[in-house]
């Protein structure tokens, strides 16, 4: 079974799911676009020569998403919900990083509501931010971001500064990737109308 079939089967509508979707209408759209953008980052880093592995709880416990979202607040549930998406290993310097993928529309202020949880549980992790302008792919270590959750694009650096192997990507591949990301953002904007 392919990865997309797996996710589709896990979120196939049933009475319980439909009731939940009615209560939280943007959840499944956000989940789907989150998977798309995470896959773009996986492809990008893999193409650069990094080893990339799924790490977040969505990868290991896909049916747990709704239950955790609805759970009573607890430190364990918060730690699980804030687990970074990816484990990235550089074979050149054997560095291992945990990466959380976020996408936001282009604006002056970028809001990341979960930043306090990342500071508390995963301060050494990296947020890879995709925004549809400028460099498109940005990154920053969580411990270098303030805890307000409100950032400017300048608070993040181009992806290549944290993942230097990204400098090796061909111009053609970069152009194709940006074109696909732009299409995803356009699709997302149409889905939210």
Task: Characterise this structure.
There is one protein chain. By secondary structure, the chain is an alpha+beta fold. It has one domain: Trna Endonuclease, Chain: A, domain 1. 46% of the residues lie in helices and 18% in strands. The strands form two sheets. The protein has a six-stranded mixed β-sheet with strand order 1-2-3-5-6-8. The chain has a two-stranded antiparallel ribbon with strand order 4-7. Strand 2 and strand 3 form a beta hairpin. Helix 3 (27-48) packs antiparallel against helix 9 (171-191). 23% of the residues are buried. Mean pLDDT is 80; it is low at 1-22.
Beta content comes to: 15-25%
> What structural class do the secondary elements suggest?
alpha+beta
What does the main sheet amount to?
A: 6 strands, mixed
Percent helix among the residues?
Answer: 40-55%
Mean pLDDT: 80
Total domains, how many? 1
Helices and strands, in order, run as HHHEHHHEEEHEEEEHH
Low-confidence stretches: 1-22
Describe the strand arrangement of the main beta sheet, using strand numbers. 1-2-3-5-6-8
CATH C-level class is Alpha Beta
CATH topology: Trna Endonuclease, Chain: A, domain 1
Query: Can you count the beta strands?
Result: 8
The CATH architecture would be: 3-Layer(aba) Sandwich
């Amino acid at each position: 079974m392919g990865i997309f079939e797996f996710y589709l089967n896990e979120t196939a509508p049933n009475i319980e799911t439909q009731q939940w979707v009615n209560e939280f209408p943007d959840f499944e759209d956000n989940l789907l676009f989150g998977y798309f953008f995470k896959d773009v980052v996986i492809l990008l880093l893999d193409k650069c020569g990094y080893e990339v592995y799924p790490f977040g709880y969505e990868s290991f416990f896909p049916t747990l998403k709704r239950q955790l979202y609805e759970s009573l607040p607890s430190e364990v549930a918060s730690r699980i919900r804030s687990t970074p998406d990816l484990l990235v290993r550089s074979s050149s310097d054997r560095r291992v990083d945990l990466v959380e993928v976020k996408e936001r529309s282009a604006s002056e202020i970028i809001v990341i509501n979960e930043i306090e949880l990342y500071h508390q549980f995963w301060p050494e992790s990296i947020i890879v931010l995709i925004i549809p302008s400028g460099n498109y792919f940005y990154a920053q270590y969580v411990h270098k971001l303030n805890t307000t959750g409100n950032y400017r694009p300048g608070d993040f650096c181009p992806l290549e500064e944290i993942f230097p192997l990204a400098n090796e990507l061909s111009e053609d591949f970069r152009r194709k990737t940006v074109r696909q990301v732009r299409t995803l953002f356009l699709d997302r904007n149409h889905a939210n109308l």
